[in-house]
Amino acid sequence: MSALSVEQRGDLIERMLPEAANLAVLVHGDGGPEDIAAVLERLDDTEKNALIVVLAGMVDPDQSVGKGLSWTAVTKNGALPMPAWLEQKPLREHAPEAAEELEEDFVDWAAVAKFVKGFRVEMTDADFL
Questions:
Q1: Segments making up each domain of the chain, as ranges
Q2: Exposed e or buried b for every residue in 99-129, given b needs 16+ CB within 10 A?
Q3: Which residues contact 19 (CB under 8 A, 6 or more apart)?
């Protein structure tokens, strides 16, 4: 996806939004494995990567894993069957730390493009320059 321009990536993400919504609905009970496979089969690798990004963007990283997966299954008393999911640690704390820090002169071109269009975004000095 990095070989695409900022505009092309944005267009791709917009195209994947309905696919992500459809997949979420299917996974949450409106479809089965065959329906999910059909959605994924019609996408190329670039679209699948974009779909993953869109789906990740739909997740609140500050909620617990248990809350995020609470729809999957519960016991007759309403408890989650997997104890590891019951922990209250936010999802973001399960994410691995970034392998390397960004250099001072790293430019976030997506942030720059938003800034140019008038959006309020946090920018570094390198982005602004």
A1: 1-58, 61-95, 99-129
A2: eeeeeeeeebeebbbbbeeeeeeeeeeebee
A3: 39, 43, 47, 51, 54
Please answer whether residues 88 and 65 qualify as being in contact, where contact means their C-beta atoms are separated by less than 8 angstroms.
Answer: no
Give me the pLDDT at residue 129, please. 72
Instruction: Choose among 128, 85, 83, 81: nearest CA to 107.
Output: 128
Beta bridge partners of 64: 90
Q: Which string of DSSP letters, residue by residue, matches 39-65? A: HHHTS-HHHHHHHHHHHHHTS-TTSBH
CA dist., res. 109 & res. 112, Å (int): 5
φ, ψ of residue 76 in degrees (nearest 5): -65, -20
Name the pTM for this structure.
0.58
- Assign 2 a pLDDT band (cuts: 50, 70, 90): low
86, 57 Cβ separation under 8 angstroms? no
Ranges assigned E (strand) in 1-129:
none
